[in-house]
Amino acid sequence: MPKIVDEQMREATRQHILHEAAKEFARLGFDQANINLIAEKAGIGKGTIYLYFENKRELFLAMLRFIAQSQLAAIRGALAQHGNLQMRLEQLFLAFVRLAEKESDSFNVYMSALYGVNRAFRTEATKLLRDYVAVIALVLEEAQVRGEIRVRNIDTTALMVLSLTESFILSARVLGQSEQTLVTQASQTAQFIMQGFVASV
Amino acid sequence: MPKIVDEQMREATRQHILHEAAKEFARLGFDQANINLIAEKAGIGKGTIYLYFENKRELFLAMLRFIAQSQLAAIRGALAQHGNLQMRLEQLFLAFVRLAEKESDSFNVYMSALYGVNRAFRTEATKLLRDYVAVIALVLEEAQVRGEIRVRNIDTTALMVLSLTESFILSARVLGQSEQTLVTQASQTAQFIMQGFVASV
Amino acid sequence: MPKIVDEQMREATRQHILHEAAKEFARLGFDQANINLIAEKAGIGKGTIYLYFENKRELFLAMLRFIAQSQLAAIRGALAQHGNLQMRLEQLFLAFVRLAEKESDSFNVYMSALYGVNRAFRTEATKLLRDYVAVIALVLEEAQVRGEIRVRNIDTTALMVLSLTESFILSARVLGQSEQTLVTQASQTAQFIMQGFVASV
Amino acid sequence: MPKIVDEQMREATRQHILHEAAKEFARLGFDQANINLIAEKAGIGKGTIYLYFENKRELFLAMLRFIAQSQLAAIRGALAQHGNLQMRLEQLFLAFVRLAEKESDSFNVYMSALYGVNRAFRTEATKLLRDYVAVIALVLEEAQVRGEIRVRNIDTTALMVLSLTESFILSARVLGQSEQTLVTQASQTAQFIMQGFVASV
DNA sequence: TATGAATGAGGTTTCATTCAT
DNA sequence: AATGAATGAAACCTCATTCAT
């Protein structure tokens, strides 16, 4: 059954293109990134890329989904660990610090898409935002079930938590704070949040 | 003294170009925005724009400084009002809600610059971020002097406050929350922050 | 072996572009010549020209080398014929008359490059000048070996010969002398030169 | 009579513009030279230049006449001195060496115009060429009257002399020969020419 | 007369996309 | 399926020239 082998090959090539595309888009942004160069770096012909993606826009969107998946997996992994809510919030914070450090390119691409002007890109980036909020909301719900906290609006609170982790970390990074410094703030921030929950009652 | 009149005219034209540029850059982003179209919308000749700005890049930077100034003035105005810290935090929140609503274009331009790939743009956008933090830090310091709160690291805390207002609001807007809804969360968020300060002691 | 066919096609297209470029550059000069028009006249797309030449400057240089090659070949051919020095000098003279007539465009391009302000163009044009001198010097050397003449400095003398043929003819053409008239001066000029050699002894 | 003073002022300004124009045209060529820059260097307003010259083309032509006058004066001066023909030819040669050295810019402008593509420029440059030939022809005629030489066609011979001085020197300069070296060839070249006259009988 | 702000035509070059092989 | 040669739209920027002051 060569069909399956072909299918695997095709998927492998697709992934390879996405990887190279992510690098280029992160390095230069959507407009300045060069499709031909992406093809070249992926070791395929200029035209071949169009056998996998309809056009530059679709390639960018696919790449956006690609890095979203990867980031969400990292966040899910961090929150999957056991422990009380404060410990989990610390893990979430640390996970974002790691991502902001190691996948800063992906973050830039994602943020550009989220606040950029292209409607299609924004829609796609918003999905990741929604997923983040959903994952955090789930954790908060569990904590509520276990009686650790009591919050009025889970989704709004989840968004606050996200702002105090992801956005806070990104801003801090932009302002020049080192990964080191940020790591030491994990516990403090988690406390800040936990304490804040009192207000939500 | 015709010099002054000319000087005024010149400044007026400059401002006019910046306004139109802001609209176009917000609508299309730096790369897709068209200098010719900006000139046309500003009601001047193609070449005239280059009598006011060296090139497209410089025009963008000037516009960035322009909207930064305007936004910072709005925030400063909101915080200038008297009242205790919680009331001021509410005002800050409401100010950002208003800005996110009325100057959403400016926010998009600013965020794109902050997380985009162009180093010069990022540097300029970072300045505004720093200014925001500085303004909030000032308010926190005053509150501390008055004994309302006691925080360890003023700047880090200010950044947390900013994340829980600006970033939170922007994310909420992206997720579709109405201005109306956000306004009702001003008090809640301010409480959340005030409560969180307990953790910082 | 489709490679060879493609290679041939490519070379043919290159030559074709060079021909059209030569015509346009000769007609309008480097600055006024229009790449779009050259492409159009060559029957190819605007962008295609950049698949063969890096930019306008490189196209011009390539064309300069192209016409230099062609002119030098004509001169070499003229001097290759047997006969004593005077006969060869006559042949040289006649060859230049023919070139000045049939390839006047090339001459204009070449002279413009030689005395123009663009350093790169001048360097390239100087090469042709050097080649001319070298070819003539070779003939003089042979004549000296055969005892026909005795000259002190071969290169300087060769440059004199060149001045009395190429430059003389170009000036005469500019002053309106017909090809006809010039042809009748071949013998006279050759005699002038031969006689002049007596001075060099 | 302020009229005369004004007239003098006007002529002075004209000359000044021409001087600056000559420098810029020599430095950059007709197309690359910038009218605004010429005006600035001449210390006058952009628009003022158009009160003295109809347009860029006319300015260039005026400048061409300007440097032609100056060069011709130098050549006339060199040939005015007494002595036999050979001595005068030596003087002519030396005069061109000096010009090629000190007024190399003017020479480039002149040669570019002479062999360039602009018909109007070529016509103007040709006038100088004609003048050169006429001046030399006059000297030859005098020498013939005095019985020093006997030539068939004075004008053709004059052109030969010009080729063996001006063109020879320009070529030699392009090929890198120093002024020093060229000066030592004055006598040799004059001899070459004198000897060549024998052929013309 | 002198000025210089304003104009807009014009041209090189890039690059996403197509399509014949 | 894969390729890459060919295409041409699109845009920034310059600069000669005009004209109101």
TrEMBL record, chains A, B, C, D:
Organism expressing this protein natively: Dictyobacter formicarum
Any Pfam family: TetR_C_24
Domain HTH tetR-type, chain residue ranges per copy: 11-71
DNA-binding stretch(es), residue numbering of this chain: 34-53
Matches recorded under InterPro entries: Homeodomain-like_sf, HTH-type_TetR-like_transc_reg, HTH_TetR, KstR2_TetR_C, Tet_transcr_reg_TetR-rel_C_sf
PROSITE patterns xrefs: HTH_TETR_2
Protein name (record): TetR family transcriptional regulator
Keywords recorded for this protein, A-Z: DNA-binding, Transcription, Transcription regulation
Gene3D superfamilies named in the record: Homeodomain-like, Tetracycline Repressor, domain 2
